[in-house]
Amino acid sequence: MTRRQYFVIILILGTLSTISPFAIDMYLPGFPAIARDLHTSIAQVQLSLTAYFIGISAGQLLYGPLLDRYGRKRPLYVGLTVYMLASLGCALTNSIETLIAMRLLQALGGCVGLVAAQALVRDLFPINQTAQVFSLLTLVVAVSPMIAPTVGGYATTAFGWHAIFIILAGITALILIAIHFALPDGRQPDPTLSLRPTAVLANFYTVLKQPQFLTYALAGGFATSAPFAYIAGSPDVFMNIYHVSEQEYGWIFAALAVGIIAPTQLNHILLKRFRSEQIVHTVLIYQSVVGLLLVVGTWAGWYNQYSLIVMLFLFLCGQGLTNPNASALSLAPFVRHAGSAAALMGSFRMGLGAIVSGVVSLLHNNTAIPMVATMTVCVVTGLVTLLIGEKAVRQMQPTATEESLSEATL
């Protein structure tokens, strides 16, 4: 693989991974305008975000087996087409109920990008490079929170919030063209994999009984659900409590995204000296401490708008290290069932995201407490899960699984 091919593949996989983050982040500045236009509350608009997370969680479980059975590209074409049509449906809606339904459909289509991107990393790169590749993907994904809310804020001000969904449809059309002409096929279709419910469940069970997958998918899933609490709560915290404008909120969101980007680049250096397991362990302890300080300080009234931004920045720094390393460790044991493993991992994360965003909405009390408390519970739960699962992982023989033996014969 030449340097140019490597760059193009990373770029396409990164954009595939950003489809859902863009759909989440880009319309956040439009929450107040959507609520006014559809004659509803921001809490109701937040439910459209929860619906999106539910759709991602359920959809990934469907696409995992499809990607293993039919190859990577055919499900991508179908899913992204559904996403584009649903995006146009969001743009044309005139009720909050229709918006919620269209967001659910949009998520069911767009989530194919998340699963396919992770499976293709496992297909196209050696296992000892996957953590670094996931770091690069995290870098591309992390750029989206810098761009998406800012673009969304200006688009809402200039053209109205409906324009946001038209832009999303247009971006996805460009990604489809790039997939067709520049993305390798990855692992070929496997006709021997049945799509009968019993066979699909058996494949998922094969993945779930692998201790390394279970430990790092659960621990990483809990930890990486923390930003969903921030995503769900931050529009209300900054625009309603601190009264910043849509454009100002977009810039705040972009600035905090740097907290994810910078550690992503640091991960390349750390991986030369430390194992992914060590990095995940240390970062979860760090985030738990910062999270507890966030909760105590918010409850005690220590923070104003700017000091809260600083504390959120310090907390989010951990995401740029946890996500790529936990993802690589989760998928490492698999070759044949990489699509199913990626689907389970992504479904768990987005399912938690749906729960977390719903919890923040339900606990809404005109303070930042629901947001920061939920964020902290997520990372502390991830740390506890990791500590419990590490013993089982240490006892596991790394070459004893059918997946590892399959890889050795490829």
Automatic annotation (TrEMBL):
The keyword Glycoprotein appears for this protein: no
Family: Belongs to the major facilitator superfamily. Bcr/CmlA family.
InterPro entries reported in the protein's UniProt record: Efflux_drug-R_Bcr/CmlA, MFS, MFS_dom, MFS_trans_sf
Transmembrane feature ranges: 7-24, 44-63, 75-94, 100-121, 133-155, 161-183, 213-231, 251-271, 283-302, 308-329, 341-363, 369-388
Compartmental location: Cell membrane
Keyword Cell membrane appears in the UniProt entry: yes
PROSITE patterns associated with the record: MFS (PS50850)
Domain annotation Major facilitator superfamily (MFS) profile: ranges: 9-393
Source domain of life: Bacteria
Organism name: Spirosoma soli
UniProt entry keywords in alphabetical sequence: Cell membrane, Membrane, Transmembrane, Transmembrane helix, Transport
CDD domains per UniProt: MFS_MdfA_MDR_like
UniProt name for this protein: Bcr/CflA family multidrug efflux MFS transporter
Membrane topology: Multi-pass membrane protein
